[in-house]
Structure formats: C-alpha cells, structure tokens
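Example 3.2
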Amino acid sequence: EMPLVADQLLKQKKIDAVVVLGYIEQGETLHGEVMGHVVHAALVEMQLKHKKPVGIGIIGPGATRAQAEARKVGAAQGAVRAVLQSLSVLRELA
C-alpha cells in the first residue's frame, strides 16, 4: 500500500518529497523480510522516477513490538532529516 500512495503523492507538482513510516513485525515466516525488500526497492525506484526524495523510516523486518516502540521516534526523525538534507542538496544543484 505504501508504494502506491507514495507514487500518487510524488506525481503531484505541489509535493516536494515524501516520508514513509512503517513497522514490519516479526512473523513466523520470511514474508516480512520479502515485503521489506520489495517495499524498499519500490520506494527507491520512485525516488529516481519522480526526481523527488523519499524518506524511508521503516522499522524491521523482524522487529518485535518492543523494538519498534523503542525506535519509532528515531526512525521517523531520521527519515525526515534525510529528506530535508536531500532537498537542500537538490536545490543547490539546480
């Protein structure tokens, strides 16, 4: 779901960047790991397609609820910082 929403947002002229936050919990199979790789690859591809930064603050795959709780603020802040830094560099290059 996140790549589709991010793609639709990035198509809009008024949107300069997107930050995607999420949590892929620890499961009994490797499904979460596969989804983590697929989602990450799709978001990076979108960044290049739209020439707009995408901050990725996804915890996991395989994180426990306690790990996610402990890391959620830092992951979100890191994703926002990365997007702001990318926007700054892109503006300097323009």
